[in-house]
Amino acid sequence: MFNLLGVPPQVLFGQLLLGLINGSFYALLSLGLAVIFGMLNVINFAHGALYMVGAFVAWLLLTYLGLGYWWALLVAPTVVGLVGIALEKTMLSRLYKLDHLYGLLLTFGLALIFEGAFRHQYGVSGQPYPIPDALKGGQNLGFMFLPNYRGWVVVASLVICFGTWFAIERTKLGAYLRAATENPTLVQAFGINVPVMVSLTYGFGVALAGLAGVLAAPIYQVSPLMGTNLIIIVFAVVVIGGMGSILGAIVTGLGLGMLEGLTKVFYPEASNIVVFVVMAIVLLIKPAGLFGRER
Fold this sequence. Notes:
The chain is mostly helical. The chain has helices at residues 9-40, 47-65, 69-90, 100-122, 148-170, 172-182, 184-189, 194-216, 228-241, 246-266, 274-285; strands at residues 138-140, 145-147. Helix 1 (9-40) packs antiparallel against helix 8 (194-216), helix 1 packs across helix 9 (228-241) and helix 2 packs across helix 8 (194-216).
């Protein structure tokens, strides 16, 4: 069937794999954005910069401390999460009663500060990060060759994304989080420290960005610009899925990544804009997004 379309199966499945990998990063990053917006009503424009910080923490751990990839998967998200908690406590917490625009402007400024600091220190050329020995090589599937590391990225992203969705939508902790965003006074009356919960929620959301940065480091070079190149697409994914919808962020991120891959096969010129075309169509038909709810 693929040959009838003039596309060899290896090319088609290869691009679908690349699209699925990109979609995994879209889903993981947009998940963090959706958690922060859905729980805190903050449009976090610093998300891409914190994704970059996560990749750089992994690179610094390896370069200066000799701690490899598996340590970085634990340490980098923790570091980024603690940075996020500090930012929330000192800056964002002062803006919750103001218009969303103030939070967006603050986080946009923070993104520029982070990017400028790393660009000044390390330049704009990327730093290589090696694939861990346990994930080198690949599998011959007959119709294509699947690198082990890229397969790991897809599986890890899916487990993290759907685990987060389950925790927020199907557990008591998630119920407390959702209630705290709608009626914090009532939740606090039950003895729950809402400000601490809010800080931890923001820290968790940005820790997901840091984790995505570690996963991305062996595939893309570690660069101060890596977050800037991705964040606009990720915001489009969140808008298409529905602002604050966790399931929407996951499904839309994966789906748009694969759509982008297919577009590169059949109409490469449109591959860079297909996400924004889809966003325009969705907003015309369903302004709240595919999984969003009208407010």
